[in-house]
């Protein structure tokens, strides 16, 4: 059977498309006609999540990191995903670029400057009184950035991804997130449970992608306003979103080889180029000094940020920062893990962890050392970076920062391109994964997914992002609105990810029992 015939025979899963379409339509209608009520519902859910389960978010973040370190160093790292005869589909470089850029989206471009400066000026009082603008505040600001953007998010993705990869490639189960749950009863979950789990994961990732799409849109719009004078209004946001959507839908339709791989390669090279530019033209010695001291401080205060909840003083800082981040990373984790699983066939678990957990995290450390160090130096030097963020908005931080560097107009353009490509890469991978989940194909091959389904999900996520942006107003900023959406999306996934991690560990530890890659055809069919 050729590819065209195979695609024509692929059918949409009505148990996914129908309920999700109804939910998305309800959100869109409510966002248009009752934006305040939409905000109130989101706020109530976020409050419940933080007040009752904030501790569980924090514990889960640390736990997943420990799981990945253990898998990397243990004997189980030698297990090959797909069996000894499986062949890799990507080179190490392409694998790294896709893992890096699909995992972080536009995040490090947005928060690489804004977050260190924010916590340098307004440090949370973790472990004692910390004075604004002090050296202690700088150390804490860097530690917070490392915690939020390096090992923990990739640990969540990697834990999910390796569990799904083992279930799909070694246990010969369908390419579904729910396949990981096989070991709970030693048989596949029933269709109802399978659909329910996939729907929850899909809702979470759609909310998470919409949140990142919203943040990136505001940043691009602000950049265009500062450089070209275009109005930074909600109308501009809508135009930017639709341009992004058209691009990532086209990329998704062209497939992994021509779409995601090409964009991720160019995206990573652009990241590296921007890092080198800031490092050379920035305060190089200060960056070295602050970076070295920050790493030592972070190692000395390894779990300070990831366990801080302020139950006595009642600070809400952790709600709007670490809990938000853990929620959005968790929202991504099942389907981001599924995508990482799809591209990991033929690699060992140790290789999986190195490429999807360790190296991207180290890249994040370097990114925040250079951009965070340079931005804190600017604030100390009196450039008014923090004041610009307060008067114009957090989304203006990047462009206020690079204004103090040579070739401002050209550099700004490159940063806007980097933001655009970052969003496209992340949305592309998620559109592909969601579309795979929405069909009855059981193979881990995105080529089998019809283009119309990719278009449907790409447009749906764009509408959610637009509604969330335009529903923000005097009560809540666009940035905080996207934070709320992400937390709402990640809250139900918190509990599923704990179950997934348990199942994944049990499968891998008992791999002689569950690994069918060396079994004969009859044994292979027992799990179908």
The number of helical segments is 20
Strand content: under 5%
The CATH topology label is: Amino acid/polyamine transporter I
Question: Which architecture per CATH?
Answer: Up-down Bundle
Pfam families: BCCT
Subcellular location: Cell membrane
Keywords: Cell membrane, Membrane, Transmembrane, Transmembrane helix, Transport
Transmembrane segments: 16-33, 53-71, 92-114, 151-171, 192-216, 236-256, 268-290, 323-342, 354-376, 407-427, 455-473, 485-505
Give an overview in words.
- This protein starts with a helix and ends with a helix.
- Mean pLDDT is about 85; it is low at about 1-10 and about 520-528.
- About 75% of the residues lie in helices and about 0% in strands.
- By secondary structure, the protein is an all-alpha fold.
- The longest helix is centred in the middle third of the chain and has 48 residues, at about 235-280.
- Helix 2 packs across helix 3 and helix 5 packs antiparallel against helix 6 (about 135-150).
- It is globular, with a radius of gyration of 22 Å.
- The protein has a single domain (about 5-525), classed as Amino acid/polyamine transporter I (Up-down Bundle), CATH 1.20.1740.
């Amino acid at each position: 059977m050729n590819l065209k015939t195979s695609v024509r025979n692929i059918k949409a899963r009505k148990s996914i498309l129908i309920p999700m379409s109804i939910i998305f339509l309800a959100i869109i209608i409510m966002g248009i006609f009752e934006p305040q009520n939409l905000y109130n519902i989101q706020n109530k859910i976020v409050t419940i999540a933080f007040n009752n389960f904030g501790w569980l978010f924090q514990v889960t973040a640390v736990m997943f990191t420990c799981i990945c370190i253990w898998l990397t160093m243990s004997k189980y790292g030698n297990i090959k995903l797909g069996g000894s005869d499986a062949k890799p589909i990507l080179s190490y470089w392409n694998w790294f670029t896709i893992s890096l850029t699909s995992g972080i989206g536009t995040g490090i471009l947005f928060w690489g400057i804004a977050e260190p400066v924010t916590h340098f000026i307004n440090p949370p009082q973790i472990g004692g009184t910390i004075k604004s603008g002090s050296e202690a505040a700088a150390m804490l600001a860097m530690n917070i950035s490392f915690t939020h953007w390096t090992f923990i998010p990739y640990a969540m993705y990697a834990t999910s991804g390796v569990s799904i990869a083992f279930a799909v490639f070694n246990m010969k189960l369908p390419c579904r997130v729910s396949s990981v749950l096989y070991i709970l009863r030693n048989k596949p979950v029933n269709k109802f449970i399978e659909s329910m789990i996939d729907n929850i994961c899909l809702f979470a990732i759609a909310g998470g992608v919409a949140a990142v799409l919203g943040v990136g849109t505001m940043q691009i719009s602000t950049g265009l306003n500062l450089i070209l004078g275009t109005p930074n209004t909600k109308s501009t946001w809508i135009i930017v979103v639709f341009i992004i959507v058209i691009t990532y839908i086209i990329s998704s339709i062209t497939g992994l080889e021509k779409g995601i791989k090409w964009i991720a390669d160019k995206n990573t090279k652009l990241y590296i180029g921007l890092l080198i530019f800031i490092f050379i033209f920035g305060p190089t010695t200060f960056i070295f000094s602050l970076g070295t001291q920050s790493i030592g401080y972070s190692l000395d205060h390894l779990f300070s940020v990831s366990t801080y909840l302020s139950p006595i003083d009642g600070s809400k800082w952790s709600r709007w920062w670490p809990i938000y981040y853990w929620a959005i990373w968790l929202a991504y984790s099942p389907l981001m893990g599924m995508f990482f699983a799809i591209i990991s066939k033929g690699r060992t678990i140790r290789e999986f962890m190195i490429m999807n957990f360790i190296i991207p995290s180290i890249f994040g450390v370097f990114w925040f050392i250079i951009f965070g160090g340079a931005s804190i130096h600017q604030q100390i030097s009196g450039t008014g970076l923090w004041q610009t963020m307060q008067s114009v908005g957090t989304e203006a931080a990047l462009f206020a920062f690079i204004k103090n560097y040579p070739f401002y107009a050209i550099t700004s353009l490159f940063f806007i391109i980097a933001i655009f490509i970052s969003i496209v890469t992340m949305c592309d991978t998620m559109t592909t994964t969601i579309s795979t989940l929405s069909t009855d194909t059981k193979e881990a091959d995105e080529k089998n997914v019809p283009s119309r389904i990719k278009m449907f999900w790409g447009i749906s996520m764009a509408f959610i992002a637009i509604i969330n942006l335009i529903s923000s107003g005097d009560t809540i900023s666009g940035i905080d609105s996207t934070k709320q959406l992400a937390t709402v999306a990640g809250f139900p996934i918190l509990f599923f990810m704990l179950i997934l991690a348990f199942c994944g560990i049990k499968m891998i530890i008992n791999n002689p029992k569950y690994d069918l890659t060396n079994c004969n055809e009859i044994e292979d069919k027992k799990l179908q």
